Amino acid sequence: PAVVDQAAEWLATLRAQGASPKTCAVYRNALDALGAHVGAAATAADVTADDLIAWRGALAARGLALATVDVYLRAVRAWFGWLEERGALFLNPAKSLVLPKVARRLLPVPGAADLRRLLAAPNAATPYGVRDRALLETAYATGARREELVTLDATAVDLVNGTVRVVGKGRRERVLPLTRPAVAWLNRYTTRSRPVLLKGKLDELALWIDHHAERLSPHGLDVVVKKHAAAAKLRGLTPHAL
């Protein structure tokens, strides 16, 4: 559809600005849905405020979750705003678009006793156990997001000053403080266990090493947390909850 073709440059700009592939994929899905609604020949200039209102109703009629409808509408509103700023659009039909009110459900938060059990769950007698303990301590100390944790390089850790440098959304860097236990376990991991897990692959930059001597994936992090949460008898614990 013409709408999707027009949005290609915007999506490329978002990627260049550091937007995640997941975000770009969701925005592309939103524009695909809009293009299908207004017709293959319709361009951004053809879309009216009434079209967007009707599209919002069509999304709801499809049974999409309010959170999904909210993301779709925000994506389209951002795209029209970008076109307006560039002077590519005379009238912005999304300027007065009303977004649905989405209830933000808070995740259950583990208590101090829960966290003590979780942190003590890994078997520190093994290199992977030390890795997992250091990883959990770092996650708990910093509150870093899952993607921020798995993209950490070994050089991002400053054990002398007790900090770690993470790269977040939009490629923004920030330096986060570590707790004393996190520093101690990171020191043990980086000096003893990580060299073992690398299996001679000394050019690997990643901090967290998996069973293939490569960077631990987001799914791998989920598995680590789920495994030790089960051992600590904590149900539904996620990296995000940490």
Folded structure, characterized:
It is a single chain. This protein is mainly alpha-helical and 242 residues long. The protein is 53% helix and 5% strand. The protein has helices at residues 2-16, 21-38, 49-61, 66-85, 112-120, 127-142, 146-150, 180-198, 218-231; strands at 157-158, 163-167, 173-177. A 3-stranded antiparallel β-sheet has the order 1-2-3, with no helix packed on it. Helix 1 runs antiparallel to helix 2 (21-38), helix 2 crosses helix 4 and helix 6 (127-142) packs antiparallel against helix 8.
Short description:
With 242 residues, the chain is mainly alpha-helical. Helices cover 53% and strands 5% of the residues. It has nine helices and three strands, in the order αααααααβββαα.
Give the helix tally: 9
Distance between the termini: 42 Å
Determine the fraction of residues in helical runs and give it as a percent range.
Answer: 40-55%
The number of distinct β-strands equals 3
Summed over residues and divided by their number, the pLDDT gives a mean of 89
> What is the general shape?
elongated
Unreliable stretches covering 5 or more consecutive residues: none
The radius of gyration over CA amounts to: 23 Å
Based on secondary structure, the structural category is mainly alpha
How would a crystallographer describe the biggest sheet? 3 strands, antiparallel
Order of helices and strands: HHHHHHHEEEHH
Widest sheet, order of strands: 1-2-3
Please indicate the percent range of residues in DSSP E strands (runs of 2 or more).
under 5%
Assembly state (oligomeric): single chain
